[in-house]
């Protein structure tokens, strides 16, 4: 079992997922070093400290990681933004975080996103579900930065032996808010359990896990969850009556897994018929 008194670095601590994880991990007895570019809005939990920092600032990130056994990287830009906005935190910042993990011989959990593969079409049946070794098909600069982050994990495992778990998060919110999320939703308790499994797993290597609850209409199939012994327990299905009819009305949004991100700055001619998209 890992030593819970050795710190775990949590980036993006002031975001919704960071705040939830700070609360859950502290309650489970983990010692946290928390950081974010934004102030931490809650009371700092026991055995934790918070340092405001920019992921662009390499020396500070290296210093924050000193003595840490693991890094939970939830920091950076978390929605689609212009390239120049994504570049610093998600590209350079990711490099700083991986360098810190290499130096400390720490394992790293990367909060990746479904937007790294968002231009895959939604499946019509369970046979068409995607496995985690599918091609990257980012749906914007944000998704592209997540694909880069996963590949950074591949590199740092192959070259430096830094173990890493890449969680391709679907939609992690208190509850699903539209029909798409019946397929992509990840309940907070399922995410918190996955993070603890990651901290406790004996060996990880370079692994990719679909970050979604046990949703019957999931877009996703095989991944490396057995390596960390994780099984989600919640399901979006219990929200079907509430959100099942909440569709966008946009054919591009409804065609692709990334949903609304795919149409941001979309300059391709209108998608119709479906066959027009079959040339990979
Ligand atoms: C993400 O990656 C975002 O961080 C989140 O805000 C949602 O937009 C989510 O994807 C989603 O696809 O629902």
Structure in a nutshell:
The chain has 280 residues and is of the alpha/beta class. It contains nine helices and seven strands.
Task: Please give a structural write-up.
It is globular, with a radius of gyration of 18 Å. It is 32% helix and 13% strand. It has a single domain (8-246), classed as NAD(P)-binding Rossmann-like Domain (Rossmann fold, 3-Layer(aba) Sandwich). The longest helix has 22 residues, at 83-104. It has helices spanning 16-27, 58-64, 83-104, 141-160, 181-184, 188-200, 225-228, 240-243, 251-255, and strands at residues 8-11, 32-36, 48-52, 70-73, 107-113, 164-169, 206-211. Helix 4 (141-160) links the parallel strand 5 (107-113) and strand 6 (164-169). The protein is built from nine helices and seven strands, in the order E-H-E-E-H-E-H-E-H-E-H-H-E-H-H-H. By secondary structure, the chain is an alpha/beta fold. The structure holds D-galactaro-1,5-lactone. D-galactaro-1,5-lactone is lined by residues 78-79, 113-115, 169, 171, 184.
